[in-house]
Amino acid sequence: MSKTDSEGQAKQGFPSGNFEEMKGFFDACAEFNLKLMNAGMSLSKEGIEQETYKKFFAAWQAALAEYLDKYLRSPEFCEKLSQNMSASLFFKKNIDQVLLSSLKSLKLPTRDDIGELYGRIDAIEEKVDQVLEKLDKR
Fold first, then answer.
1. pLDDT of residue 42
2. Which is nearest to 87 in space by CA: 21, 22, 12?
3. Annotated domain spans of the chain
4. Residue 24 has what DSSP assignment?
5. Residue 46's pLDDT is what?
6. Of the candidates 65, 35, 30, which has an alpha carbon nearest to the alpha carbon of residue 43?
7. In this structure, are residues 83 and 15 in contact, taking their beta carbons and an 8 Å threshold?
8. What is the block-wise mean pLDDT of the chain (138 residues), using blocks of 10 residues?
9. What pLDDT is attached to residue 43?
10. Whole-angstrom distance between the N-terminal and C-terminal Cα of the chain?
11. In CA terms, which of 30, 44, 72, 99 is 20 to 30 Å from 66?
């Protein structure tokens, strides 16, 4: 992709990223895996018992909770999440416009057209009910 293409995408709301920005994530994953392996190695001396698995799971859960709490609260993660949400909303807006344009080109009714039609049908039903009530009174 040329430089002008990526600049144009950035202006349109597409998130940018590089490997350096992900370094913190990879470091945290490595730290988490190391804690998990250490917990597993210390428990492996106890043998294969149900209580051993419970201890291993508790150690895994504690390490994962610590990692997730640290990473999911980080400004970097929140910024990437915000960029992702912006890009998703941008994409949805454009898809909606393309679909609306396509439906109009094909002379097919849009959601708004159908809603208006339902409104008219409801009004006609109401008028018919009023006329039937008047006829019943006679």
1. 67
2. 12
3. 108-138
4. H
5. 56
6. 35
7. yes
8. 44 50 70 74 63 76 81 85 92 92 85 93 96 90
9. 63
10. 78
11. 44
Give the pLDDT score at 91: 94
3-state secondary structure string, the chain?
A: CCHHHHHHHHHHCCCCCCHHHHHHHHHHHHHHHHHHHHHHHHHHCCCCCHHHHHHHHHHHHHHHHHHHHHHHCCHHHHHHHHHHHHHHHHHHHHHHHHHHHHHHHCCCCCHHHHHHHHHHHHHHHHHHHHHHHHHHHC
13, 90 Cβ separation under 8 angstroms: yes
Could you tell me if 56 and 4 are in contact, meaning their C-beta atoms sit under 8 angstroms apart?
Answer: no
The one-letter amino acid code at 69 reads D
Amino acid letter, 52: T
Indicate the DSSP class of residue 47: -
Instruction: For the chain, give the number of residues.
Output: 138
Cα separation, 81 vs 99, whole angstroms? 27
Compute the distance between CA of residue 91 and CA of residue 110 in angstroms, rounded to an integer.
Answer: 20
